[in-house]
Amino acid sequence: MFSVPTRRSQLPFLTFLLITVSLFVYYSFDLFSRSGYRTSHRRSTHKIQYNFPRGERAKSLAQEDRLYAVKKEFLHAWTSYVDHGEWADELGPLTGRKDNKFCGWSATLVDALDTLWIMDLKDEFQNAVVATSNIEFSIGETNCVVNLFETTIRHLGGLISAYDLSQEEAFIPKMRELGDVLLSAFNTHNGLPCSLCVLKSQPDTQFQPSSNIAMAAQGTLHLEFTRLTQILKDDKYFLAVMNITEALARMVSALTYFKECGPNSSQRARRMDILPHLTLSTVSALCPTLPTNTSSRFVTCLPRDFDL
C-alpha cells in the first residue's frame, strides 16, 4: 500500500525545481541581452549598429598601410587636378583634358571638400575653401543645362557635408546661392521640378516639369534640400521637395484606385499591366483627374497622352 507523500517529503523536490527554473530564467535573459535582443516592442528602441568595444580600438599594421596607400593615391589625383585642372569640373586622368559638363562649377573641387577634411589635409582644405568661395553659381555659363540630380548630390551635397564637418562659415553664402538656383527648377505649373533645364536663362522663368525621369532622380533630393532648410533656417527648400512626396502619394492612390475601382474587370486588367511601369513622370499634372465621384485623395495627374 502506497503512502501519500507529505509536504515535508516534497520539499527537496520543490526546492530543486525552484532553483532550476530560476537559473533557466536568469541565463535566458542574459543570453538575449548579449545577443542584442530587446524585450520591448517599441521599434524605436531597436539597435541595429554593432556595439564596438569601448576605448581605443587596436589598429593592425595592415590597416595603417592601407590608410597611407589611400591617402597617397588621393593626394596624387588632387595635386594633378590643382596643377592642371584649373578648377574645372573634371580633369581627364590620361589626356589631361579639362571638361566642364556641370556648368563650370568646379564639380571635382566641391565634391572633394569633405574628403580633404576627413583625411586631415587642412592646408589643402583651406585652399579649396578659397577656391569654392570664388564659384559664381548664380552666373556661370548662362546657357548651361543644369542636371538637377547631379548638381544636388555633387555640389549642394558637397557643400553641406563640408560645412557639417568643418563648420566653415564661408560655405553658407555659397549654399544659399546654389540652393536658390536649384530651387528655380521647381518653378513649374505643378511644383514638380525640371530635371534638365537652363535654370539661369531668365529670372522667374516658368519651366516645364520633366516628362520622363526616374523616381530616384527626384525622390532623393529630400536629403540635401531638407538639410539646407535646417542650416539656413528657411522652409522654402523643404516645402519645394515636399511637392515630390505629395506627387508620389497621389501616384500610390492612383494605383489603388485603378486596382480596386476600375470601371470593369477587362479595363482593370489592362491598366494593371501598364501601371507597374509608371515613373514619377506620370504624375506631372499634364492630364485629367480621376472620376469626380471618387475621393479627393485619389486625384492624380497622368500625362494627357497616357492611354488608360
Biggest sheet strand order reads 1-2
Span of the ends, CA to CA: 89 Å
| Cα gyration radius (Å) | 30 Å
CATH class of the largest domain: Mainly Alpha
Mean pLDDT: 75
Shape: flat
- Topology pattern, helix = H, strand = E: HHEEHHHEHHEHHHH
Strand segment count: 4
Number of helical segments with 4 or more residues: 11
| Percentage of residues in DSSP E strands | under 5%
Q: Let me know the largest β-sheet.
A: 2 strands, antiparallel
Oligomeric state, counting identical vs distinct chains: single chain
Q: What fold name goes in the CATH topology slot of the largest domain? A: Glycosyltransferase
Helix content: 40-55%
Which structural class fits the helix and strand makeup?
mainly alpha
Low-confidence stretches: 31-45, 265-308
**CATH architecture term of the largest domain:** Alpha/alpha barrel
The tally of domains stands at 2
Description:
The protein has 308 residues and is an all-alpha fold. The protein starts with 6 loop residues before the first helix and ends in a 34-residue tail after the last helix. The chain folds into two domains: 185 residues, Alpha/alpha barrel (Glycosyltransferase); 51 residues, no CATH class. The protein is 52% helix and 3% strand. The protein has eleven helices and four strands, in the order ααββαααβααβαααα. α7 packs across α9, α9 runs antiparallel to α10 and α10 crosses α11.
